[in-house]
Design goal:
The protein has about 110 residues and is mainly beta. Helix content is about 0%, strand content about 45%.
Length: about 110
């Protein structure tokens, strides 16, 4: 398993499919020293090789585990992968007109 595309509130988990499975079991928790409960989500995607975990807190390190479920039961969970969510959300730039010097004024982006 690997982690890709980390945003302020989501993480994409990727894996290589080595056998047939009926669903994917994702377990994760914040690594903040206070959280002891492991969240668990099951995705019924027999051919999936990635999933996006959403609803995460900003600026938080998480540990993730993946297991696969088929008619024989649940596989052993993968070793942990770690990801720290970001702090920014993409903000569209909006043209506000011209400033007092006749320059283009926009909102969004850095310094806004």
């Amino acid at each position: 398993m690997s982690v890709s595309k980390v945003t302020a509130d989501s993480v994409v988990l990727n894996w290589e499919q080595t056998s047939k499975f009926q669903s994917v079991l994702i377990r994760y928790r914040a690594r903040d020293g206070r959280t002891t409960i492991m969240c668990e989500e099951q995705y019924n995607r027999a051919t999936a090789e990635r999933v996006t975990v959403t609803g995460l807190s900003r600026r938080t390190e998480y540990e993730f585990y993946v297991a696969f479920v088929n008619s024989a039961g649940c596989s052993r969970a993968s070793g942990p992968q770690y990801a720290t969510t970001g702090t920014t959300v993409s903000v569209p730039r909006v043209f506000l007109g011209l400033d007092s010097w006749g320059c283009r004024a926009e909102s969004g982006g850095l310094g806004s």
